[in-house]
């Protein structure tokens, strides 16, 4: 791995593990006064930065694509790496749903619509905003003074697209949907934040402000959710959601922290621990749902068990990664786990 980009590879593996853990840790979704519910909210809150981190990584690594190849090549690479696997794995999910009786309408038009709307594997929802982000990247790449323009985008987008809707939600005030900046919308802003943090050095004071805000963000995700849910008697999701102010603060702080660890002994340890899984994370994302289904069908597990939710998540991640590594050695098959 390139020394200057080690933290990107490390973050990719950690974010992928966090995604697996979120899918294993589903017990928080139904409110309970039992201890497992609190631990579920804590795990969910800590892992909530995973998807935004993937978008930040995409921004950090792809916006300058023109330094390596032209736009046609960019789209060809994105098509082979994401569109082809999305179609193939969605087909697998559709066949599985038909086999298990979850789908009974076999009309071709209905089956295709189900694939497009990610009905057969709802965890693939991630692909749709990702495809939209890819279509936006050539526009971002064409911006000349990225430091000034991206800085403005981050400031304006954070206030208008994240902070104001969040404050409106907290205060219970209806939000005027005309107060929007479509160019700076949530997923696009994550691309820009990832690029900015990775390419420009921030003053020490600015870094500490981001860390402080990041801590506030994760506390809102965890403590805020627990306190409000207990008061209401049901799971309050106002602090959650990937396009939400607390998550933006938290994910930005995590991304910055790993960049600042670059070259340190801590980073070297992370590199050693994550190196076996580098290059398999996208495949794990595609595959782990099927591994999880097998576990639930054939292995009796207590889904509220903290041990299962932590160590089981790691086990599912590792098994999925091993399967991906094997598939990547098989001609043709390797195309669907790039």
Q: How many domains would you count in the coordinates?
A: 1
Number of strands: 0
Structural class: mainly alpha
Please give the count of helices. 13
Instruction: Please give the largest β-sheet.
Output: none
- Listing every helix as H and every strand as E from the N terminus to the C terminus, the arrangement reads HHHHHHHHHHHHH
Assembly level: single chain
Keywords summarizing the entry:
about 350 residues, mainly alpha, 13 helices, globular
Provide the fold topology.
Blueprint: H1 6-24, H2 35-47, H3 50-62, H4 71-99, H5 108-116, H6 127-141, H7 146-171, H8 186-199, H9 204-232, H10 245-260, H11 265-274, H12 281-298, H13 306-327
Helix pairs in contact: 1-2, 1-3, 1-11, 1-12, 1-13, 2-9, 3-8, 3-10, 4-6, 6-8, 7-8, 8-10, 9-10, 12-13
Model description:
69% of the residues lie in helices and 0% in strands. Helix 1 runs antiparallel to helix 2, helix 1 crosses helix 11 and helix 1 runs parallel beside helix 12. The protein is built from 13 helices and no strands. The model has no long low-confidence stretch (mean pLDDT 93). The chain is an all-alpha fold and 338 residues long. The chain has one domain.
């Amino acid at each position: 791995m390139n020394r200057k980009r080690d933290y990107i590879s490390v973050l990719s593996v950690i974010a992928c593990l966090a995604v697996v853990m979120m899918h294993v840790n589903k017990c928080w979704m139904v409110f309970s006064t039992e201890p497992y519910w609190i631990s579920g909210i804590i795990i969910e809150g800590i892992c909530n930065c995973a998807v935004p981190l993937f978008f930040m990584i995409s921004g950090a690594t792809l916006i300058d694509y023109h330094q390596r190849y032209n736009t046609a090549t960019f789209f060809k690479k994105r098509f082979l790496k994401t569109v082809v696997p999305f179609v193939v794995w969605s087909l697998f999910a559709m066949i599985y749903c038909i086999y298990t009786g979850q789908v009974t309408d076999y009309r071709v038009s209905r089956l295709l619509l189900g694939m497009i709307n990610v009905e057969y594997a709802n965890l693939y929802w991630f692909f749709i905003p990702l495809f939209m982000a890819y279509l936006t990247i050539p526009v971002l790449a064409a911006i000349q003074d990225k430091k000034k323009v991206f800085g403005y985008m981050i400031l304006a987008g954070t206030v208008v697209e994240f902070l104001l809707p969040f404050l409106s939600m907290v205060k219970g005030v209806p939000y005027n949907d005309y107060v929007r900046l479509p160019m700076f919308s949530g997923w696009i802003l994550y691309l820009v934040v990832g690029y900015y943090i990775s390419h420009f050095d921030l003053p020490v004071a600015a870094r500490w402000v981001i860390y402080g805000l990041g801590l506030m963000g994760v506390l809102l995700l965890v403590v805020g959710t627990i306190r409000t849910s207990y008061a209401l008697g049901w799971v309050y999701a106002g602090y959650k959601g990937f396009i939400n102010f607390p998550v933006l603060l938290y994910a930005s702080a995590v991304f910055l922290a790993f960049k600042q660890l670059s070259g340190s002994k801590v980073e070297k340890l992370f590199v050693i621990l994550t190196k076996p899984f580098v290059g398999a994370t996208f495949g794990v994302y595609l595959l782990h749902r099927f591994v999880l289904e097998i576990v639930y069908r054939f292995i009796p597990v207590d889904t509220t068990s903290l041990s299962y939710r932590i160590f089981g998540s790691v086990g599912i991640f590792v098994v999925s990664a091993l399967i991906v590594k094997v598939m990547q050695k098989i001609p043709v098959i390797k195309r669907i786990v790039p």
